[in-house]
Amino acid sequence: MDLEEHTKIPQATAKRLPLYYRFLNNLHGQGKMRVSSKELSEAVKVDSATIRRDFSYFGALGKKGYGYNVEYLLSFFRKTLDQDETTKVALIGVGNLGTAFLNYNFTKNNNTKIEIAFDASRERVGSEVGGVRVEHIDDMEEKMGDLAVAILTVPASEAQGIADRLVDAGVSAILNFTPARITVPSHVRVHHIDLAIELQALVYFLKHYPLDEEEEE
Amino acid sequence: MDLEEHTKIPQATAKRLPLYYRFLNNLHGQGKMRVSSKELSEAVKVDSATIRRDFSYFGALGKKGYGYNVEYLLSFFRKTLDQDETTKVALIGVGNLGTAFLNYNFTKNNNTKIEIAFDASRERVGSEVGGVRVEHIDDMEEKMGDLAVAILTVPASEAQGIADRLVDAGVSAILNFTPARITVPSHVRVHHIDLAIELQALVYFLKHYPLDEEEEE
DNA sequence: GGCTAGACGTTAAAGATTTCACAAACTCAG
DNA sequence: CTGAGTTTGTGAAATCTTTAACGTCTAGCC
Ligand SMILES: NC(=O)c1ccc[n+]([C@@H]2O[C@H](COP(=O)([O-])OP(=O)(O)OC[C@H]3O[C@@H](n4cnc5c(N)ncnc54)[C@H](O)[C@@H]3O)[C@@H](O)[C@H]2O)c1
Ligand SMILES: NC(=O)c1ccc[n+]([C@@H]2O[C@H](COP(=O)([O-])OP(=O)(O)OC[C@H]3O[C@@H](n4cnc5c(N)ncnc54)[C@H](O)[C@@H]3O)[C@@H](O)[C@H]2O)c1
């Protein structure tokens, strides 16, 4: 019943929910009591109609002529986004990117935490990075426990092999930062974040999709 | 004329072009002469009809009953993606993420290169990271030259201030890794990459959008 | 030279997402 | 208590994107 409701929410909306949640948190921290879709729109750079539409998938959360009650909205999204339970995450590949993530560790206002990290390099294994213990990749299956989510920051050539092992170890979601497009069974969810491509795409848009003329402010 | 043609290409297609290019490069490196949309589809995980459609925006690049000539396609995309000229990029904020990017530097098969980096911390300034000199942020305007693209990896609280200065310095595209949604004039293009949100969204999908039942391979 | 299998390019349909625009419902000042 | 002013929630339209389906053309074989 609960799940079915959620299943109807468009993916595009679902991707914006954490953004809304974060900003509502800020507002709440500032002691703000109410907020309109217009205000929110300016802050998160999403059209106000889109915001109202997004919220409406969850029912009537606001009041006409008033806007949204920050506290109410926040507590609603806290439930919706499962902010009360922390999802434990594994990170594979403690190199440049992996180290950056471990130091950051998404803990600020998040419900995710990197619990354990793995690497193949003997020099890294046994150390702690950002408070997270680095284990040897050979011990992955043994030490990973029942973590459901993994961040993949190994060299591209290793990606598929490690992904296969992750799947066998019971992982059901992978955030893949390698350029390799990995193949997994259909019950596993993979999101690719391909930073090199993001940069190239930005440059392409810059050159081929002119925006407004330059105008001095 | 040339520009107008490109302007008609859907954004979704444009974002996939660097991906195609990278894979074609791999194929070419392996000495492969021809490739079909089906093969490409399996490698980059994009529906083959979508690939054919994407390519068709540029005209008839393939041959029926044969597929695409790798060399031809590659040289076509090289032109289209301006792979021959290197776009110089500045990076602001040499912290965890910034350091990772500098060490990587997108140089592998890319047309982008981080030329210069800036930071506020006296200990970092003057050093080199990944072969890139780190300058003090106070000297940014003076030392940036005419770079058009910047990567922003400063703390969120600094993001808007630095963005304003980047715009004044003539930057027209910003890749923003901070959680702050920055405001810029309409002639400046900003892409947000919000890693914390990507992770949260993945977890949300995992919990609320069940995929196929688990099945043993 | 003719035939078969394969693969493109494209039309059209379906699906997803965004945006417009406005009636209804509310707030708040006076 | 009233009325002016806000702001929601949502049909309907517009836009963008993906996918299916297939006619057409080519390669390669016999
Ligand atoms: N650093 C960046 O800015 C950047 C940008 C875009 C893409 N990427 C991609 O992200 C990935 C990681 O990049 P990076 O710069 O951190 O690379 P890196 O070489 O610094 O780190 C890779 C780490 O993985 C470890 N490793 C190697 N094989 C392993 C294995 N089989 N099991 C476990 N660990 C293993 C290595 O010891 C190393 O610590 C790469 O695929 C890269 O292409 C990185
Ligand atoms: N590291 C991650 O994994 C991660 C993940 C998600 C988001 N982010 C975001 O990316 C940004 C950078 O993250 P980080 O972990 O690298 O942070 P960091 O604190 O390690 O690095 C920030 C760097 O910016 C420099 N800096 C501060 N003020 C500056 C200024 N005014 N001008 C120039 N440089 C200045 C600091 O000296 C520091 O070196 C942050 O906004 C963070 O929220 C990081």
UniProtKB/TrEMBL annotation, chains A, B:
Its source organism is Halobacillus alkaliphilus
Q: Name one Pfam family in it.
A: CoA_binding
Q: Which GO terms describe its cellular component?
A: cytoplasm
A single GO BP term for this record reads: response to redox state
This protein's UniProt keywords? Cytoplasm, DNA-binding, NAD, Repressor, Transcription, Transcription regulation
Q: Name where it mostly resides.
A: cytoplasm
Write down the DNA-binding region ranges: 19-58
Stated name of the protein: Redox-sensing transcriptional repressor Rex
Q: Per the similarity annotation, which family is this?
A: Belongs to the transcriptional regulatory Rex family.
Q: Which compartments is it annotated to reside in?
A: Cytoplasm
Q: What are the CoA-binding domain coordinates in residue numbering?
A: 82-181
Would the keyword Lipid metabolism turn up in this protein's UniProt record? Answer: no
Any single GO molecular-function term of the entry would be: DNA binding
- What is its quaternary makeup? Homodimer.
